[in-house]
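Structure first, sequence second, as always.
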């Protein structure tokens, strides 16, 4: 499986060629709305569940709060959490309920991709075309994604998870520098370093740790803030991994970065070209801003890089992406 090296001066041509090679259009019928999650069947869920040995559980979500990394790009802001009623009302306000019963309620306002999340199949288009060859305007309207909304997969994303800690395997002090493009060679080197439990295949949920989130949180702790974590330079998957991502038949892939693929992108002028192949053509579910550090520490400690992973998105009807609190259990 040799990666196809693109001409960095011709993103249009490279994207079109990769899209043709990697297309899953029609693979599961013209009405399909699941994409690569078709690979994640009941047998894969049983396989994933059988990996639980110790019962150790790890949340892979960043916090959802006003101190997050968002800076307003495409009107993405950090979550705003507000109390509708509080203990102050219960203690000092007029009685709301009889016999002294009090309570607290709250509300949150946030873009659905403000923190740890899945990209749905209606999130990215290629020249106005959505997954499975549908016209974008017939899929996502002002009412939301009417065909491939994230709610269609709310009960499906659970199975065998695999961690590739590329930051530890090929990086410096567990981290890859911004702009580092993870190639198939780096993936294979990581598998070799970690062992057979880190080999991903059909129906698996692959997690890739770069170490960028580790570095960003260190900056926050030392008073430098989030910097350009949200949208700026980052390590990530190389465009040349498109064929590997297609051919391995994984169900989904998530990283600890804002944008999954390497930034700046590998063409002279381009924006997220791997997204443009993965989502509308492969039908691959992409997770971003996952917190993989505690899980990675545990995997490095016991040498086991496979686990049961439950990562159901919040089933917001018609959403093109949604928050998730993924749980890995070993």
């Amino acid at each position: 499986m040799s990666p196809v090296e693109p001409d960095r001066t011709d993103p249009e041509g490279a994207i079109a060629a990769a899209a043709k090679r990697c297309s899953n259009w029609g693979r599961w019928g013209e009405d399909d709305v699941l994409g690569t999650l078709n690979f994640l069947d009941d047998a894969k869920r049983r396989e994933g569940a059988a990996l639980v040995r110790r019962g150790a559980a790890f949340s892979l979500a960043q916090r959802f709060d006003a101190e997050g990394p968002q800076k307003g790009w495409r009107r993405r802001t950090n979550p705003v959490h507000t109390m509708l009623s509080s203990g102050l009302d219960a203690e000092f306000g007029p009685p709301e309920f009889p016999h002294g019963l009090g309570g607290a309620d709250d509300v949150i306002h946030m873009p659905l991709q403000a923190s740890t999340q899945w990209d749905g199949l209606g999130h990215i288009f290629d020249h106005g075309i959505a997954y499975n060859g549908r016209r974008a305007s017939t899929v996502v309207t002002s009412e939301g994604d009417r065909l491939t909304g994230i709610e269609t997969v709310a009960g499906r994303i659970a199975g065998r998870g695999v961690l590739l800690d590329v930051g530890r395997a090929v990086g410096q002090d567990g981290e890859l520098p911004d702009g580092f493009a993870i190639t198939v060679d780096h993936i294979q080197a990581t598998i070799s370093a970690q062992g057979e439990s880190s080999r991903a295949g059909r129906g698996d949920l692959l997690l890739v740790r770069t170490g960028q989130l580790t570095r960003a949180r260190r900056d926050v702790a030392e008073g430098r803030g989030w910097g350009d974590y949200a949208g700026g330079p980052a390590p990530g998957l190389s465009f040349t991994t498109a064929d590997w991502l297609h051919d391995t038949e994984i169900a989904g892939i998530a990283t600890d970065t804002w944008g999954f693929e390497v930034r700046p992108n590998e063409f002279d002028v381009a924006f997220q070209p791997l997204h443009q192949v993965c989502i509308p053509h492969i039908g691959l579910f992409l997770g971003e801003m996952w917190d993989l550090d505690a899980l990675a520490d545990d995997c490095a400690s016991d040498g086991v890089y496979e686990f049961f992973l439950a990562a159901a998105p919040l089933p917001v009807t018609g959403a093109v992406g949604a928050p998730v609190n993924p749980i890995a259990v070993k």
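Margin note: The CA atoms of residues 120 and 220 lie 29 Å apart.
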